[in-house]
TrEMBL record:
Protein name from the UniProt record: CPBP family intramembrane metalloprotease
Biological process, per Gene Ontology: CAAX-box protein maturation
Naturally occurring in which organism (per UniProt): Lentiprolixibacter aurantiacus
Statement: the UniProt record of this protein carries the keyword Membrane: yes
Domain (CAAX prenyl protease 2/Lysostaphin resistance protein A-like): residue spans on this chain: 129-220
Organism domain of life: Bacteria
Chain ranges passing through the membrane: 7-28, 40-58, 79-97, 124-142, 162-180, 186-203, 210-230
GO molecular function, one term: metallopeptidase activity
UniProt keyword list: Hydrolase, Membrane, Metalloprotease, Protease, Transmembrane, Transmembrane helix
One Pfam family named in its UniProt record: Rce1-like
Amino acid sequence: MNKVNKLKSFIALSIIVFIPFGLMLWIRNHQSTGFASIELITYPLLFGGLSITILILLKKYFLKEKLADLNSGLGNWTTDIVWGILLTLIYFGLFYIERLTLANILEFNSNVELLGLMLDMRESPLLLLIWFGPVLWIGIALYEELIRVFLLTSLWKWSEHIIWNLLVILLSAIIIGLAHWSQGPYGVVTIGIKGLVSGYFFYSKKRLMPLVYAHVLYDGIQVALLLLTYPDP
Protein backbone atom coordinates (compact mmCIF):
# COMPACT_ATOMS: atom_id res chain seq x y z
CA MET A 1 0.00 0.00 0.00
CA ASN A 2 1.40 3.41 -0.98
CA LYS A 3 1.62 6.41 1.34
CA VAL A 4 -1.49 8.11 -0.03
CA ASN A 5 -3.64 5.05 0.53
CA LYS A 6 -2.16 4.57 4.00
CA LEU A 7 -3.07 8.16 4.84
CA LYS A 8 -6.61 7.66 3.55
CA SER A 9 -6.85 4.45 5.55
CA PHE A 10 -5.70 6.22 8.71
CA ILE A 11 -8.22 9.03 8.14
CA ALA A 12 -11.04 6.51 7.71
CA LEU A 13 -9.96 4.62 10.84
CA SER A 14 -9.81 7.88 12.78
CA ILE A 15 -13.34 8.80 11.71
CA ILE A 16 -14.91 5.44 12.40
CA VAL A 17 -12.76 3.99 15.22
CA PHE A 18 -10.18 6.16 16.96
CA ILE A 19 -12.14 9.40 17.45
CA PRO A 20 -15.49 7.78 18.42
CA PHE A 21 -13.82 5.36 20.84
CA GLY A 22 -11.81 8.21 22.37
CA LEU A 23 -14.98 10.25 22.81
CA MET A 24 -16.75 7.30 24.41
CA LEU A 25 -13.93 6.90 26.92
CA TRP A 26 -13.96 10.62 27.68
CA ILE A 27 -17.74 10.68 28.18
CA ARG A 28 -17.63 7.65 30.44
CA ASN A 29 -14.84 9.11 32.56
CA HIS A 30 -16.64 12.45 32.95
CA GLN A 31 -20.15 11.09 33.31
CA SER A 32 -21.70 11.75 36.73
CA THR A 33 -24.80 9.64 36.18
CA GLY A 34 -25.47 6.49 34.19
CA PHE A 35 -27.70 6.07 31.18
CA ALA A 36 -31.42 5.54 31.60
CA SER A 37 -33.06 2.46 30.10
CA ILE A 38 -34.50 4.34 27.14
CA GLU A 39 -31.04 5.75 26.39
CA LEU A 40 -29.55 2.25 26.47
CA ILE A 41 -32.11 1.33 23.82
CA THR A 42 -31.87 4.37 21.55
CA TYR A 43 -28.16 5.23 21.74
CA PRO A 44 -26.82 1.89 20.43
CA LEU A 45 -29.34 1.95 17.60
CA LEU A 46 -28.61 5.53 16.60
CA PHE A 47 -24.85 5.47 17.13
CA GLY A 48 -24.37 1.94 15.83
CA GLY A 49 -26.61 2.44 12.83
CA LEU A 50 -24.99 5.76 11.92
CA SER A 51 -21.49 4.33 12.35
CA ILE A 52 -22.31 1.35 10.12
CA THR A 53 -23.64 3.70 7.44
CA ILE A 54 -20.57 5.94 7.62
CA LEU A 55 -18.27 2.91 7.51
CA ILE A 56 -19.93 1.62 4.35
CA LEU A 57 -19.78 5.04 2.68
CA LEU A 58 -16.12 5.56 3.62
CA LYS A 59 -15.11 2.15 2.37
CA LYS A 60 -17.01 2.42 -0.89
CA TYR A 61 -16.51 6.06 -1.88
CA PHE A 62 -13.48 7.35 0.04
CA LEU A 63 -11.26 4.28 0.15
CA LYS A 64 -12.64 2.86 -3.11
CA GLU A 65 -12.65 -0.64 -1.62
CA LYS A 66 -15.09 -3.48 -2.00
CA LEU A 67 -17.43 -4.25 0.87
CA ALA A 68 -16.75 -7.92 0.14
CA ASP A 69 -13.35 -7.45 1.81
CA LEU A 70 -15.20 -7.65 5.12
CA ASN A 71 -16.53 -11.13 4.37
CA SER A 72 -14.18 -12.53 1.74
CA GLY A 73 -13.56 -16.02 3.11
CA LEU A 74 -15.13 -19.23 1.90
CA GLY A 75 -18.39 -20.17 3.58
CA ASN A 76 -22.15 -19.81 3.61
CA TRP A 77 -24.90 -19.08 6.10
CA THR A 78 -24.84 -22.66 7.43
CA THR A 79 -21.12 -22.73 8.13
CA ASP A 80 -21.33 -19.20 9.53
CA ILE A 81 -23.93 -20.33 12.08
CA VAL A 82 -21.86 -23.40 13.02
CA TRP A 83 -18.74 -21.29 13.51
CA GLY A 84 -20.80 -18.77 15.46
CA ILE A 85 -21.96 -21.47 17.86
CA LEU A 86 -18.43 -22.83 18.25
CA LEU A 87 -17.09 -19.34 18.97
CA THR A 88 -19.85 -18.86 21.55
CA LEU A 89 -18.77 -22.05 23.31
CA ILE A 90 -15.18 -20.81 23.32
CA TYR A 91 -16.28 -17.44 24.73
CA PHE A 92 -18.20 -19.10 27.55
CA GLY A 93 -15.28 -21.41 28.24
CA LEU A 94 -13.06 -18.35 28.60
CA PHE A 95 -15.75 -16.70 30.72
CA TYR A 96 -15.65 -19.44 33.34
CA ILE A 97 -11.85 -19.68 33.30
CA GLU A 98 -11.61 -15.92 33.76
CA ARG A 99 -14.07 -16.02 36.64
CA LEU A 100 -11.93 -18.63 38.38
CA THR A 101 -8.68 -16.74 37.81
CA LEU A 102 -8.79 -13.08 36.81
CA ALA A 103 -11.86 -12.27 38.91
CA ASN A 104 -9.70 -12.74 42.01
CA ILE A 105 -7.09 -10.30 40.74
CA LEU A 106 -8.80 -7.57 38.72
CA GLU A 107 -11.49 -5.15 39.82
CA PHE A 108 -14.88 -5.51 38.17
CA ASN A 109 -17.45 -2.73 37.89
CA SER A 110 -21.00 -4.07 37.94
CA ASN A 111 -23.07 -2.91 34.99
CA VAL A 112 -25.76 -1.17 37.02
CA GLU A 113 -27.21 0.40 33.88
CA LEU A 114 -27.78 -3.00 32.27
CA LEU A 115 -29.35 -4.33 35.45
CA GLY A 116 -31.73 -1.38 35.46
CA LEU A 117 -32.60 -1.97 31.82
CA MET A 118 -33.11 -5.66 32.51
CA LEU A 119 -35.56 -4.92 35.32
CA ASP A 120 -37.42 -2.53 33.02
CA MET A 121 -37.52 -5.18 30.28
CA ARG A 122 -39.24 -7.53 32.70
CA GLU A 123 -42.07 -5.03 32.89
CA SER A 124 -42.16 -4.10 29.20
CA PRO A 125 -42.40 -6.72 26.44
CA LEU A 126 -41.78 -3.94 23.91
CA LEU A 127 -38.42 -3.06 25.47
CA LEU A 128 -37.60 -6.76 25.56
CA LEU A 129 -38.32 -7.20 21.86
CA ILE A 130 -36.42 -4.08 20.86
CA TRP A 131 -33.33 -4.98 22.89
CA PHE A 132 -33.16 -8.62 21.79
CA GLY A 133 -33.96 -7.53 18.23
CA PRO A 134 -32.42 -4.48 16.57
CA VAL A 135 -30.41 -3.25 19.57
CA LEU A 136 -28.57 -6.53 20.12
CA TRP A 137 -28.24 -7.50 16.46
CA ILE A 138 -27.46 -4.10 14.91
CA GLY A 139 -26.53 -1.61 17.61
CA ILE A 140 -24.26 -3.98 19.52
CA ALA A 141 -23.16 -7.12 17.64
CA LEU A 142 -23.08 -5.97 14.01
CA TYR A 143 -21.64 -2.58 14.94
CA GLU A 144 -18.83 -3.90 17.15
CA GLU A 145 -17.87 -6.73 14.82
CA LEU A 146 -17.91 -4.49 11.75
CA ILE A 147 -15.63 -2.07 13.57
CA ARG A 148 -13.32 -4.93 14.52
CA VAL A 149 -13.20 -6.33 10.99
CA PHE A 150 -12.79 -2.89 9.41
CA LEU A 151 -9.89 -2.15 11.74
CA LEU A 152 -8.26 -5.50 11.02
CA THR A 153 -8.67 -5.46 7.25
CA SER A 154 -7.59 -1.82 6.96
CA LEU A 155 -4.36 -2.27 8.90
CA TRP A 156 -3.56 -5.63 7.33
CA LYS A 157 -3.37 -3.85 3.99
CA TRP A 158 -0.39 -1.87 5.31
CA SER A 159 1.80 -4.98 5.33
CA GLU A 160 1.46 -8.68 4.55
CA HIS A 161 4.09 -9.72 7.09
CA ILE A 162 2.70 -12.26 9.56
CA ILE A 163 4.20 -10.44 12.55
CA TRP A 164 2.38 -7.26 11.52
CA ASN A 165 -0.86 -9.18 11.04
CA LEU A 166 -0.62 -10.66 14.53
CA LEU A 167 0.25 -7.27 16.03
CA VAL A 168 -2.85 -5.81 14.39
CA ILE A 169 -4.95 -8.54 16.03
CA LEU A 170 -3.42 -7.59 19.38
CA LEU A 171 -3.99 -3.88 18.73
CA SER A 172 -7.64 -4.42 17.81
CA ALA A 173 -8.19 -6.48 20.97
CA ILE A 174 -6.64 -3.75 23.11
CA ILE A 175 -8.69 -0.98 21.47
CA ILE A 176 -11.99 -2.82 21.81
CA GLY A 177 -11.12 -3.89 25.34
CA LEU A 178 -10.39 -0.28 26.33
CA ALA A 179 -13.70 0.78 24.80
CA HIS A 180 -15.32 -1.16 27.66
CA TRP A 181 -13.40 0.79 30.30
CA SER A 182 -16.60 1.41 32.27
CA GLN A 183 -16.60 -2.29 33.20
CA GLY A 184 -13.32 -1.89 35.06
CA PRO A 185 -9.96 -3.64 34.56
CA TYR A 186 -11.59 -7.07 34.59
CA GLY A 187 -13.93 -6.11 31.77
CA VAL A 188 -11.15 -4.53 29.71
CA VAL A 189 -8.86 -7.56 30.02
CA THR A 190 -11.48 -10.26 29.51
CA ILE A 191 -13.04 -8.52 26.51
CA GLY A 192 -9.54 -8.02 25.16
CA ILE A 193 -8.85 -11.75 25.50
CA LYS A 194 -12.03 -12.58 23.61
CA GLY A 195 -10.94 -9.98 21.06
CA LEU A 196 -7.78 -11.99 20.44
CA VAL A 197 -9.92 -15.05 19.71
CA SER A 198 -12.22 -13.05 17.43
CA GLY A 199 -9.32 -11.42 15.64
CA TYR A 200 -7.50 -14.68 15.03
CA PHE A 201 -10.71 -16.33 13.83
CA PHE A 202 -11.20 -13.59 11.26
CA TYR A 203 -7.54 -13.81 10.29
CA SER A 204 -7.96 -17.49 9.52
CA LYS A 205 -11.49 -17.53 8.08
CA LYS A 206 -12.17 -13.98 6.80
CA ARG A 207 -15.87 -14.33 7.69
CA LEU A 208 -17.76 -11.55 9.47
CA MET A 209 -21.10 -13.19 10.25
CA PRO A 210 -19.80 -15.92 12.60
CA LEU A 211 -18.45 -13.12 14.79
CA VAL A 212 -21.84 -11.40 14.73
CA TYR A 213 -23.72 -14.61 15.57
CA ALA A 214 -21.32 -15.41 18.40
CA HIS A 215 -21.63 -11.88 19.79
CA VAL A 216 -25.43 -12.08 19.72
CA LEU A 217 -25.46 -15.49 21.39
CA TYR A 218 -22.88 -14.61 24.02
CA ASP A 219 -24.50 -11.34 25.09
CA GLY A 220 -28.05 -12.56 24.56
CA ILE A 221 -27.67 -15.71 26.65
CA GLN A 222 -26.12 -13.79 29.53
CA VAL A 223 -28.87 -11.18 29.56
CA ALA A 224 -31.56 -13.84 29.22
CA LEU A 225 -30.15 -15.74 32.20
CA LEU A 226 -30.09 -12.54 34.24
CA LEU A 227 -33.68 -11.83 33.28
CA LEU A 228 -34.69 -15.26 34.50
CA THR A 229 -32.61 -15.49 37.65
CA TYR A 230 -31.88 -11.99 38.97
CA PRO A 231 -33.99 -11.32 42.08
CA ASP A 232 -36.58 -8.57 42.05
CA PRO A 233 -35.56 -5.43 43.96
